[in-house]
Amino acid sequence: MIGPMRIRGLHTSEPRTVELTILMPCLNEAETVATCVRKARGFLERTGIEGEVLVADNGSSDGSIEIAREAGARVVRIADKGYGNALMGGIGAARGRFVIMADADDSYDFSQLDAFVEGLRAGNKMVIGHRFRGGIRPGAMPLLHTAILAIQC
Description:
The chain is α/β, with parallel strands linked by helices. Helix content is 27%, strand content 27%. Helix 2 links the parallel strand 4 and strand 5 (74-77). Helix 1 (33-47) runs parallel beside helix 2 (64-71).
């Protein structure tokens, strides 16, 4: 077991007991969170990676919390509002040596995380991917919504 760690001043409260946490910040994603959790759990089962699926809920009022739990995720409630706070709170609660994070809106394929894990296992401190082949149309979405991020904790 790897003990609690600090990530640039962020104290992680959980000991690192598994290799991978798949983290999904969530705010009212009732329509898609179960699909994302099932894909992530399927990835862990397919690859044999010891890991967890963690949903960092930021105040959902649409049943997202219950849906995520029923699909097999561990859910933590993040009281401080905002996407960044949900990510930081989720990282703090993560039990994985590595954390892969992406939105719970089913715009990323959580069943295809192999390259991210390979990159992290190879010693990279950060692995970044994107969900678009051929680019993003101007104005289609904010820049911050275009990347999937994986880090070593």
